[in-house]
Structures are given as C-alpha cells and as structure tokens.
Design brief:
22 strands, 3-stranded antiparallel beta sheet, 8 helices, elongated, 421 residues, 12-stranded antiparallel β-barrel, mainly beta, single chain, 15% helix
Length: 421
C-alpha cells in the first residue's frame, strides 16, 4: 500500500464527480465612478481555497473523500481489468453455480484526499470619459495548484473466495491464473492504465499561469441626489482564454466564454459615513460550440475518445443579487460587508450524433449564497491635501461561499491595489 499524488483536480472533473467553476474576479458593488479625464490602474491578486468541498444536489456539503471514494465490486472491475469478465462469469455460472461468487468479489476502495486552490491575477485599466461615465479594460491570469492523493484501502476478499474454491478442486489452470492476477490487482495502477487506454493526456504538473478572458466594462451613473445614487454597469466577457480540452486533465475549464452582465446598482446615503447598497445582475451566457466527450450513460464517467464531438453549448443564464453596507471610519479607512446570492439555470447541449446530450446537462443548475468582508485604506484625500506623493488605495477582502447547490465551496482572499493618475 502506498500513495499516488495526482497533479491536478481535472482528473476528478473528468470522472464527473467534481466541477470547478470558481467566481473569482468580483467586487462589492458601488456607484463610484472616476472624474472626467482621470485614469486608474488596478491590480487584483486572489487565492481561492476549499474547492475540494462541494455542495451537492441536496445542498449538503460533501468532502472530497466522501464524494470520490469508490468501492470496487465485480461490476466495476469489469471496467478496469480486461480478464475479469471471464473470471466473474466463471464464478457465477460454472464454478459453484448458484452461489453468485463473482458478484460478491470486493477489491477494496480507491480513497481520494488532498487539497486544491485557484490563484488569479487581474490587471484593470479604467478611464473617466465624463464625470458620470467610466469605462474599463480587464485582463486575467489564473492557475490551479492541487495535491490530490489516491490510496488503495479496504478489504480484498478475492483470496478468501479463491481459497474456498481451490480447496474443492474447482479451478482449472486458466481460471487459477486469472484469479491470482485479480488477487494481486493494483487498483491505482489499473486506474491510470484505464485512463491511458482511453487516450486521456498524461497526468503532469502544469505550474504556468494561463491568460484568461478579457472583459470590457462600462459604469454609468445616471441619477444622483444627496441621498440616492443609481448606476448601470455592463460587463462584456470576450473568449480570449484557452479552450477546454476534454482529453487534458490539466487545463482550466473556466475560460473561453462569451457572456454579458447587466447590473443595476443603488446606493443610499444613510448618514455622512454610512451607505447601504444593493445590486441586481442578469448574466446572459451566449451560446457557443465546445469539444466534449459525450458519455454513453450517466455512469460513464470517462467516455472514450470516439465519443468526442464539437457540440453546441448554451450555458444557463443567471441572476445575481447583492446587499451591502459600507462605513467610512475617516478619510483614510473604510469597511464594507456584503451578502451575495446567485442562481443559474441548467446548461443545454446538442449535437449532430444520436447521443443522449442531456447527460452533459446533469447537475448544472446551481445556486449559492456568499458573504464578503472588506477593509480599505485610501490616500486620495491625503494626496489632495498634499500629504501623500501619489493617490492610491489598498483593500483586502475575504469571502466565503457558505451555502449552495452543485457548486464548490470557495473561500477567497483578495488583495487590491489601485493607483490614480
């Protein structure tokens, strides 16, 4: 018994038991815009953890071990060992017929454990076209680090069955040899060989940062009174990032998407230092085409390469809502907190072959609830008072996705630096 370290979570994604689509680049909504002619350079650096825990279809939080640990009985052995069908058929129908010993074989478990995290960076350039209208250009970079361990545990009862049958002289030479191979079967090795036979790419570490999608952002403040401020924000996501390779365990399946977000933002100035905010966002995911291996059935976690097809994909549209509170302690320090909810309808797939494309849509309807806490330091007023050489702000934000369905739990630490010029 030993340990095997998997280099990336995508091996688990392709098994169909884990799907990582982290919401990484976001901010607590407000109605702030840049003055006319002012530019800003913003840099976001973030770390997303706890993605090995997932909220299932019943909204219960499941650990990696609880979701992926598999006990291999006789039927599952058929998928891993080419000679196993002969032995199981012999045990069920020839040797001690009627006892169904083939279906009673247990080879133990493949136990999965470990950690994974997503790191991201996002440079943002913004410009105040007017005193009410700001536009921005956003790029992103991301990488996944994972250390997933697979251990062969549990009881292999094939030796007990072999001893019971061989003592009665019921095994011929071929069955005896096949049975002994089964007794010494290394599930981990067979698992990796099984992946290789299906033409999945080798498991290798990929430490490089990947360039993600580009976003164009527009913020327009169209109404303002001493108490109320209303703003409209539009985000257009362009599919400039890498496409998902269904045969590659190491690529990031979160880029190369086209969508438009339209957000209505409201701020209410309750006191001089206290603001209550809210926002409502509609996310329109634009249909596209993508390479997918279409499973034969819902239990076909690793489809053959022959099942790969460039299918039509329509990611379900979503609705996001936010309530936040922002408090200015003084001209330099401020704090914010927010609750964010999100709901997305299920995805739809179609193609030109007579496959059951609805399998790809399984468990793609999602929702989540998240809280965010943020602390900010701004030197803008100090700059205006000639106490700081440059106008800048720094913020730290923590968020936790504390409830959801069909989505990974995500804890996010994000640091943002903004400079004005």
């Amino acid at each position: 018994m030993g340990w095997v370290h998997l280099s990336n979570m995508r091996v688990l994604i392709l098994i169909g038991l884990l799907f990582i689509i982290p919401s990484t680049i976001y901010a607590i909504e407000d109605t702030a815009v840049l003055p006319k002619g002012v530019r800003s350079m913003l840099w976001k650096q973030g770390y997303v953890g706890a993605v090995t825990e997932k909220y299932g279809t019943d909204a219960t939080l499941y650990s990696l071990d609880g979701r992926l640990t598999k006990n291999f009985d006789a039927k599952q052995v058929l998928n891993l060992h080419p000679r196993a069908p002969e032995l199981i058929n012999a045990l069920n129908n020839t040797l001690l017929k009627g006892y169904g010993l083939g279906d009673k074989i247990q080879l133990g478990q493949l136990q999965f454990s470990g950690e994974a995290n997503l790191q991201y960076m996002a440079p943002v350039i913004a410009y105040g076209l007017t005193d009410k209208w700001t536009v921005a250009f956003v790029t992103s970079f991301a990488k996944i680090d994972a250390d997933i361990e697979v251990q062969h545990t549990g009881v292999n009862n094939s030796k007990q069955i072999y001893d019971a049958i061989s003592s009665k002289g019921k095994l011929n030479d071929e069955a005896d040899a096949t049975f002994k191979r089964l007794m010494n079967l290394d599930l981990r090795s067979e698992f990796y060989t099984y992946l290789e036979n299906k033409n999945y790419k080798p498991l290798k570490t990929n430490p490089d940062w990947q360039f993600g999608d580009v976003q164009l952002v527009s913020k327009y403040k169209y109404f303002e009174t001493p108490k109320w401020t209303l703003l409209n924000k539009v985000v257009v996501n362009l599919p400039t990032g890498p496409e998902d390779d269904p045969s590659d365990f190491l690529d990031l399946p979160i880029f190369h998407r086209s969508f438009v977000e339209v957000t209505q933002v409201q701020d209410y100035q309750y006191t001089k230092n206290l603001v209550f905010g809210s926002a409502l966002t509609y996310i329109w995911n634009i249909a596209d085409k993508i390479d997918r291996r279409v499973p034969v059935s819902a239990s076909d976690y690793l489809p053959d390469a022959s099942r790969q097809e460039n299918v039509d994909r329509d990611i379900g549209d979503g609705l996001r809502w936010e309530l936040n509170t922002r408090y200015n302690l003084n001209s330099n320090v401020s704090f914010a907190s927010a609750y964010v909810g999100n709901y997305k309808v299920k995805d739809y797939y179609s193609g030109n072959r007579s496959y059951d494309y609805s399998i790809l849509s399984k468990n793609t309807e999602t929702y989540y609830h998240r809280y965010e806490l943020q602390a900010n330091y701004s030197a803008v007023q100090d700059y205006l008072n000639k106490k700081s050489p440059i106008p800048y702000s720094v913020s730290y934000k923590f968020s936790d996705l504390f409830s959801g369905k069909n989505i990974e739990r995500q804890t996010v630490h994000e640091l943002t630096l903004m400079v004005f010029f």
